[in-house]
């Protein structure tokens, strides 16, 4: 604690407030005169028209979600949602935004589920003079403004890089060269098909990869699911995937493509086809980029069927036309260029 700072128990730092009526979620309006605040990340989740239920904010306060641990700084009038919201009005020896920053800095992750506010009350709040608090708040405001500007600029740059990457994909696969081979997926690619199989899941063990993990261009860890290691040999009878193999989701979603990024034993199930191209004719990563490209995605979606969720049959997937350079050197050159561009948007 810095010299000249004071410390008080949490409850001695907040005023006791009289709450207004709390509105049940089923009664929230989609539009209205006053915002309804809740403990969810979205924060404002509905609207209300009755002024009698309005909580008037005379000085800024902090809203705390008792279950979600969401903290929000509020300087406007609002209506309360009935979902565990706590109103924290700092006393006059505390600058509201300084108080908010102190709570943000607390280790809220250590608070137990459904007991968050009770444990929050056990915190001690440190604070300097009001003038020093104001100085600290001004520094923080300036820093956060700089961060916000940097985020906006970074997002603009990221969108620009994505557009360049997508444009390059279109350029490569939209106008194939004269020395490219025209064939079908089934002629040059072996399928290992684990669609329809659902293994018994365990708390730990070998990683299970399903269609939920396969995104456009990468394999996502979440959701993390596992199967027992001793079931591997009996389960993986349709073929053993290798690092670099291309993963293709046939349904929900249809057409997501990524490469297996690990050499460790993993188990596959549910709506995934593993693609192993003829290594003498077609590079794995080139295949991934081809399947990610707009021309092939359009062909895939055109053959997809389904009333509620689009999916593609393996037999139809094999008939889709695919083109690639006859020379492996040219494929690898294209892959290197696309890898460099993709690294800018990862």
Shape estimate: elongated
Mean pLDDT: 87
Major sheet: size, sense and barrel closure?
4 strands, antiparallel
| Succession of helices and strands | EEEEEEEEEHHEHEHEEEEHEEEEHHHEH
- Beta content comes to 15-25%
The computed structural class is alpha+beta
* CA gyration radius, whole angstroms: 28 Å
The total count of strands amounts to 20
- Poorly predicted parts: none
Number of helical segments with 4 or more residues: 9
Strand order of the largest sheet: 2-9-6-7
Report on this model:
- The longest helix has 45 residues, at 130-174.
- A hairpin with a 3-residue loop joins β16 and β17.
- α3 (130-174) runs antiparallel to α9.
- 31% of the residues lie in helices and 24% in strands.
- With 346 residues, the chain is an alpha+beta fold.
Give the key terms:
346 residues, alpha+beta, 4-stranded mixed sheet, 31% helix
Topology:
Layout: E1 6-9, E2 14-15, E3 22-23, E4 34-37, E5 44-48, E6 61-65, E7 71-74, E8 79-81, E9 85-90, H1 96-105, H2 116-120, E10 124-127, H3 130-174, E11 180-184, H4 185-188, E12 189-193, E13 201-202, E14 206-209, E15 225-227, H5 232-235, E16 246-250, E17 254-259, E18 266-268, E19 272-277, H6 284-292, H7 294-303, H8 314-317, E20 321-325, H9 328-343
Parallel strand pairs: 3-8, 4-8, 14-18
Antiparallel strand pairs: 1-10, 2-9, 4-5, 6-7, 6-9, 11-20, 12-19, 13-15, 14-15, 16-17, 16-19
